[in-house]
Design brief:
82% of the residues lie in helices and 0% in strands. It is an all-alpha fold. The protein folds into 2 domains: 200 residues, MFS general substrate transporter like domains (Growth Hormone, Chain: A); 211 residues, MFS general substrate transporter like domains (Growth Hormone, Chain: A, Up-down Bundle), CATH 1.20.1250. The longest helix has 50 residues. It is globular and about 85 Å long. The protein starts with a helix and ends with a helix.
Length: 440
């Protein structure tokens, strides 16, 4: 019976991974089909950039409300609603409406992928994971999402190529190709919504329900204040902030290879594809090691390794053996994905009340993902000051990122110290209570 229950839990996790991997590629079609979107909708780069700027603002504003919703409503219905609304907005997008309508499409996508989805997804995974499973489950979530995105992206490219053909595409062919890709993603989202509706439990597990009975029901503001009094939450916020800052180095690998080492764009693209496939290895492997050796210890070690690797990339001179540069980039990418696969598993050790898990996820996300806002500004300042010396700017950016990563490694190490100290204290208190009970 236990084996059957465990199989059901794994199946639920797989569906959540599929949902997390399938919902965002539709929103970020720009990454692969920007020129086609601009052509089909008759837009300028500035107009499209404005839509994504608005989307980024919605994401930052939405993290905390996302947590509140995840604590107030069933994660099952929030996730199903999110997948369905994203697909519906996608169907509107596929009709190629007037570009003024895209404002409402992106508003719907922003609401569906953050407000009602982000904290609900993480909370659903957190509730599935039992003690000492958090590392594997969150590692599987990030690594699995990478596999899903890569597979769906490959299918999308194949569909687009089949519709458009090998020659120069006409406007009509480009439109048909884009529509076919969007329809594919929408179908996947609807199918997942239906499966999750029937597979995910509507309520909480008996274990979670029992835990809730012993918790004081608080207002949202009281829950926020209570969470902010937990020292481990603050340390986790900073560790996530630094880890996510480290991961942003990934977006500069292509420019680094082409500028610093005169690699062709095609070769750089191939190296980046190899890095992309490090995501499942880093996610699954990092999560497994985190549960065996300690989440915060693995996170700290991965941050140190990734930071040192970035420093190495920054000081490698032009003309250095290019094969070793490729290997170093892939190696760095592997540990960036270990970091991503592990940092959310720290939530298990933060002593957050079950009833306030969503609020905690929202608060931590609000601080942890701030690099999305300020890193582009730092990057712009660096590249502006360096002028034509883009290679030097790349090197400085990697060094700054590595420094922040090392600070994050210290934070993760301090997190491990806090958890160990707390467990020793709790063990001593439990032993003292047992002595008192036996004496009575």
């Amino acid at each position: 019976m236990a084996k059957l229950g465990n199989s059901k839990k794994i199946f639920q996790l797989i569906l959540l991974i599929l949902a997390g991997g399938a919902i965002y590629p539709l929103v970020y079609l720009r990454s692969s089909y920007e020129s086609t979107i601009l052509e089909v909708f008759g837009m300028t780069n500035a107009e499209l950039a404005n839509l994504y700027t608005m989307l980024g603002i919605i994401f930052v504003v939405g993290y905390l409300p996302s947590g509140w919703l995840a604590d107030r409503f069933s994660t099952k219905y929030l996730i199903v609603f999110s997948l369905t609304l994203t697909a519906v907005a996608g169907l509107v997008f596929a009709q190629i409406p007037d570009k003024s309508v895209l404002l409402y499409v992106f508003l719907a996508w922003g609401f569906a992928t953050v407000f009602t989805f982000w904290a609900a997804l993480l909370k659903a995974v957190d509730l599935l994971a039992e003690e000492n499973e958090g590392g594997r489950f969150f590692g599987a979530l990030d690594g699995g999402r990478g596999v899903v995105e890569a597979v769906l992206g490959t299918i999308a490219v194949a569909i687009f190529a089949a519709v458009v053909g090998s020659g120069t595409a006409t406007a009509t062919e480009s439109k048909a190709g884009l529509q076919a890709v969007v329809y594919m993603y929408c179908i996947v989202l609807v199918v997942l919504a239906v499966l999750l509706f029937f597979v995910l439990p509507a309520g909480e597990s008996k274990q979670v329900a029992e835990t809730r009975k012993n918790e004081v029901v608080e207002s949202t503001w009281a829950a926020v204040l209570r969470i902010l009094k937990i020292r481990e939450v603050w340390v986790m916020m900073f560790a996530l902030f630094c880890g996510y800052t480290l991961f942003w180095a990934y977006y500069y690998f292509s420019g680094y290879l082409t500028t610093n080492h005169n690699v062709s764009p095609v070769t750089a693209g191939i190296v980046l594809v190899v890095v992309l496939w490090m995501r499942p290895i880093g996610g699954f492997g990092g999560g497994y090691l985190a549960d065996k050796l300690g989440k915060s210890r693995i996170l700290s070690a991965a941050m140190v390794i990734a930071a040192v690797a970035l420093i190495a990339l920054a000081i490698v001179p032009a003309g250095f053996t290019v094969g070793l540069v490729y290997a170093l980039v892939v190696f760095t990418g592997l540990f960036l994905y270990v970091i991503r696969g592990v940092y959310w598993s720290l939530l298990e050790d933060c002593r957050v009340p079950v009833a306030a898990t969503g609020i905690a996820i929202g608060l931590i996300s609000l601080v942890g993902y701030l690099p999305d806002i300020f890193l582009p500004q730092i990057s712009a300042a660096i590249y502006t000051s360096y002028g034509d010396d883009v290679a030097g700017a790349n090197n400085l950016y990697f060094l700054i990122t590595a420094g922040i990563g090392l600070a994050g490694a210290v934070a993760a190490g301090y997190f491990a110290h806090l958890v160990k100290k707390r467990r020793v204290r709790e063990a001593a208190e439990a032993a003292s209570d047992n002595l008192v009970a036996s004496a009575v």
